[in-house]
Structures are given as structure tokens and as C-alpha cells.
Amino acid sequence: MTKNTRFPEGFLWGGATAANQLEGGFGEGNKGLNIADVLPGGKERLKVLSEPGFDWEIDKNKYYYPNHLGIDFYHRYKEDIALFAEMGFKTYRLSIAWSRIFPNGDELEPNEEGLAFYDRVFDELAKYDIEPVVTLSHYEMPLNLVKNYGGWRNRELITFFERYVETVLNRYKDKVKYWLTFNEINSGFMMPIMGLGFAIQKEEDRYQPTFQALHHQFVASALAVNAAHRIIPGSQVGCMIIYAPVYSYDSNPENVMYAHEESRLFNNFCTDVQVRGKYPTFINRYFKEHDINIEMEDGDLELIKEGTVDFISLSYYMSRTERKEKTTDEIGQGNMVGGVKNPFLKASDWGWEIDPTGLRITLNELYDRYEVPLFVVENGLGAYDKVEEDGSIQDDYRIEYLREHINAVGEAIEDGVEVMGYTSWGCIDLVSASTGEMSKRYGFIYVDLDDEGNGTLERKKKKSFCWYKDVIATNGEKL
Ligand code: BGP
């Protein structure tokens, strides 16, 4: 057992999911088509996410079962929430599918069937005293806004998003207190398709449209924060970032400076705007060097200043190791977030480097810079699981990963960092965002479904289920 950690009373233990990766219910309840509905699975998904030129058409010859079926939470939410309750969850992070509420995104009136679905989900959570944490936009927006408006590059999206946000805030004002604006807002740098709703057509298009789209999201996020505080007094709104601390490969000052610059851009740029309420000065040089000129309207900067978030939520999966000059061999050898291989770290089956100390570093870096509460809303190990003959799933590797990462959160708390909670990613197996497949599993709960869509959808408790239950029951003392 690792050293006791001192998690505060009321610490929000739980799990996290996203609508597009677990609900299914494709085409049900008047849901509109969204981004995730047209992304292919498997190797093709990675290609679409990383290479320019995606055209957003549903190709009828391709197999889109993963996102269309999800794990059928749309019909099985009661059973799933009962299992979360059995583990003792204090909180459950989920997202609302924008395309269930405004199927095309630009309607004036919301879709009642979509609203009613989330009422049922929140009521079910309330039965067990599980506090919902709701992401407003998690890699899913109505496809119409992508195809006919060009995604977040278009300023009109601010109005559509505001309407959607005000609708759900008013509807769920007695049921939801914690809200997150855009999932992993800084992932737009790596994959604008999911977060920003547009596909780069040529590599050189990456700069101006990305930062213009982010500006629109900053304004939309500030409007959402203000609306939440007005409509739901006492509510708390967080930004959501993917954080990967950047290490210099060695002590060469050139590499140290490079790692620092990369970290500032990737980890801090969006957070600086959303938490401090202003564009950081370091970005001016970057904008100049990449010929980026953001179009703003009068009042945007004031709004950004007023609508700062109450806390920072983050996902943490890996660190990143950087060297300014990389050999051709090294390029692409690092993590999903880039960089070069770190000789001190092992990696998951998908090459994501496992670094629990990196989480302690992350929490310290964020708290030192912003001094607002932090909420770890995603962390976990994607792994292949095997069902044994007796039906059990012995996922000791997952337990070990989570134990070390939760311990790192405890260490950070002892360092003086204010952490509100921890929700492990994919608490129930779901469709992977980067591969569109089921076989990359994160859950405490196994779902009988394979990459081709075969399976009974039956839920089974893995070994980690009982382990996590104990962690929560002892408020993190028994790891
Ligand atoms: C984050 C996303 C999630 C989730 C997770 C794991 O970036 O917010 O949606 O899927 O990563 O990634 P993957 O499913 O690709 O393993």
C-alpha cells in the first residue's frame, strides 16, 4: 500500500464519460447528426484526425457502428448509474449532446425529447446522491454547424452555443451545479476536427483558423460562465484542458527554452485566457511569426475579462519530452502529444507514456500559476482486457496505474494544491475517441462488445471495481 494521502472531506470521487462515446441512441429522440457520427473507426480515424483533407460526408459503405451504438447508455443508463452508485461515486462527469438539444444547432426552439432524456439521467443520479458534473461540449457538435457554417471559425456559432447553453442551464438549474465549457479546449492545436469543428485542408491553414476559432470559443465560454452565474446562483464553471507537462530532454539551455515555449503554448495559452481573463503577452510574438491576426469585435476582451472560470478541470494521461532538433527517426516516436521518447518511462499499448509524477508536476504547475481550485476530470489507462474462463477480468495493470496516479494527486494536495475531485476516464468501457474502437478499454465495468459491434452489451465488474470502491470508501487512504 502506498503512503496515506490526505484528501479533503467532500472530495469528489467518481468517473467520467462523454455522450458521443457511450450513449448510442443514434437517430433516436430526434437527435441530429453530429461530428462523431461521421468519423470512421480504426486506423482510418487516426488518419482523419491527423492528416488534412477530411470532407465530413457519411460514406454509407463504411461501418459506423462504434459511435452510433456507443455502449447503449441511452437505454441502459439506469443499470449503469446503479453500478456507479455501488462503487460509491460522489460525482459523475458526463456531457450533454448538443445535437440532442438542437439537432441542427441553428434552430430557435430546442428538442423536448433530448431535454427529457437528460432530465431522466439527472433524476437517476439524484436518487443516489451522485453530483453531476456536466461538460457542455465534448467533441460533438451538430454536423450542420460544421458543414454549413464552417465550425468554430464562424462567429455565428457563438450565438448558437449561447442559445444552447441558456436552454440547458434554465432546464437543469435545480439539478446541476458544476459545469465545464469545452472539453480539452487546447486539443484544437492537435486535432481541430473534434474540438473546433473544421478540417484543415492544407497544413499551412493550421494557424489563423485555429486561433480564430479558439477566440470564438473563449467568447462563448465567457458568455456561458456569466449565464451560469446569473441563472444558477452558486453554480461553478470550469474550463477543461488537456495538460501534458513538457520536459527538456537534457540540460542544454536551448532545449530547456524550447520545452518552456511548447508548454506555455500548449498548456497555458487557453488557460491564461479563460482563468486570467486576458490574452498572455507571450502569444504576440507567436502570432507575429505565424502571421495570425485575430478578428475581434468591440467588447470581446471585456467579456473575456468578466467571464473567467471558477476552477480548472483537466485531463492528464502523459507527459511530453522535447528536444529542439529532432532526428527524422525520432519524429513520431513520442506520445500522442508529440515530443521524443522519454528513456525513463514505459508506455501503454498505444504508446502513451505512463508518468504518475507528471500528474503531481501538472497540479503544482497549474496551482502555482493560477491559484484556483483544480479538478482532475480525466485520467486512466487504456488497455486490452481479457475475460477469463470464469468470467472475471483481472485488470491489475489498471489498478496499479490508478493507484500511482491517485497517490500523485494526494502528494500534490500535501504540496498545498487545492484539488476538488478526481474522476477517472471511461469508468465504464466506451468507444475510444482516438481510435473509434471498443478494444481500448478504461473501465471498472466491462462491456461485452468488440470492435466489429459483436457482443451482448452485458456489463461485468472488473477486479478494479472493488478496488476503486475501497478507495472511495476510505477517502483515498486505502490505495
Ligand atoms: C481525452 C478525451 C476523451 C477520451 C480520452 C481517452 O482526450 O477527452 O474523450 O476518449 O481522451 O482517449 P482515447 O479514447 O483516445 O483513448
From TrEMBL:
<dbReference type="GO" id="GO:0005829">
    <property type="term" value="C:cytosol"/>
</dbReference>
<dbReference type="InterPro" id="IPR018120">
    <property type="entry name" value="Glyco_hydro_1_AS"/>
</dbReference>
<keyword id="KW-0378">Hydrolase</keyword>
<feature type="active site" description="Nucleophile">
    <location>
        <position position="378"/>
    </location>
</feature>
<dbReference type="GO" id="GO:0008422">
    <property type="term" value="F:beta-glucosidase activity"/>
</dbReference>
<dbReference type="GO" id="GO:0016052">
    <property type="term" value="P:carbohydrate catabolic process"/>
</dbReference>
<dbReference type="InterPro" id="IPR001360">
    <property type="entry name" value="Glyco_hydro_1"/>
</dbReference>
<dbReference type="InterPro" id="IPR033132">
    <property type="entry name" value="GH_1_N_CS"/>
</dbReference>
<dbReference type="Pfam" id="PF00232">
    <property type="entry name" value="Glyco_hydro_1"/>
</dbReference>
<comment type="similarity">
    <text>Belongs to the glycosyl hydrolase 1 family.</text>
</comment>
<dbReference type="InterPro" id="IPR017853">
    <property type="entry name" value="GH"/>
</dbReference>
<protein>
    <submittedName>
        <fullName>6-phospho-beta-glucosidase</fullName>
    </submittedName>
</protein>
<keyword id="KW-0326">Glycosidase</keyword>
